[in-house]
Amino acid sequence: MRKPVIAGNWKLFKTTTEAIALVTELAPLVGTVDNVEIVVAPVFTVLSSVQRAIAGTNISLAAQNVFWEEEGAFTGEVSPRMLLDVGCSHVIIGHSERRQYFGETDTTVNRKIRAALNGELVPIFCIGETLAEREAGKTFDVLERQVRGGLEGFTSDQLGPLIVAYEPVWAIGTGKTATDDQAQEAHAFVRGVLAKMFDQGTAERTRILYGGSVKPDNVKGLMSRPDIDGALVGGASLKADSFASIVRFGA
């Protein structure tokens, strides 16, 4: 059985005071949940403060990005060792906004995944097609290219901790959500690519999350599908009550 993961990507929101207030409100709302892995991903500047606030709770800490070198003349970057130092256990890699606005490619995503795994961080590896690509019938081509590019050169043994997040770009922040059938179809396809690249065991154990306007009122339907193992939540993770409702989807 794959343990579900509900991860909140806070993006460019929350000052230190606001971030502490959010997790302080969230922690008691999800404190009895033991069948879901709960992750929050604040901005770099509040990671240390959030880690102190969630210490002793069932909430894990993720960063929203990482660089592939441990140290050096790389102004503005943060290494895996530095993320571990402030208490991170997970890191989001290859989010569509990073690809769109900051020039991330399958090659740089691959290097970041390798650095994260070598640095004992759990990568949340993001993939997904644009609206134009979906309308052109290229969804599966895009997903296979991103999965193969991001995981090229890895062995099955190295990928044990890996989490994949399928986020159709056309559903991020738009209020549109892939239907349960669309999401399941994409997840099953990605699992099939993993089986072809590695083996069936790797495909079966890898958790694949759905992201794209996940809300309390649509998460249950998504989570009912066999290949959907959780959610990468954007806007709804910025409020404790809505994020807690998503975490408690099975209650």
Automatic annotation (TrEMBL):
Quaternary structure note: Homodimer.
Pfam hit, one: TIM
First-tier enzyme category under EC: isomerase
E.C. designation(s): 5.3.1.1
Active site: 95 (electrophile), 167 (proton acceptor)
GO molecular function, one term: triose-phosphate isomerase activity
Signal peptide (UniProt feature, chain positions): none
Residues engaged in binding substrate: 9-11, 173, 213, 234-235
Gene, per the UniProt record: tpiA
The keyword DNA damage is assigned to this record: no
Subcellular location, principal: cytoplasm
Annotated GO biological process: gluconeogenesis; glyceraldehyde-3-phosphate biosynthetic process; glycerol catabolic process; glycolytic process
Catalytic activity: D-glyceraldehyde 3-phosphate = dihydroxyacetone phosphate
Annotated Gene3D superfamilies: Aldolase class I
Function: Involved in the gluconeogenesis. Catalyzes stereospecifically the conversion of dihydroxyacetone phosphate (DHAP) to D-glyceraldehyde-3-phosphate (G3P).
Pathway: Carbohydrate biosynthesis; gluconeogenesis; Carbohydrate degradation; glycolysis; D-glyceraldehyde 3-phosphate from glycerone phosphate: step 1/1
Entry keyword set: Cytoplasm, Gluconeogenesis, Glycolysis, Isomerase
Protein name (database record): Triosephosphate isomerase
One GO cellular component, as annotated: cytosol
Source organism: Geomesophilobacter sediminis
Subcellular localization(s) per the UniProt record: Cytoplasm
Family: Belongs to the triosephosphate isomerase family.
NCBIfam families tied to this protein: tim (TIGR00419)
PROSITE patterns: TIM_1, TIM_2
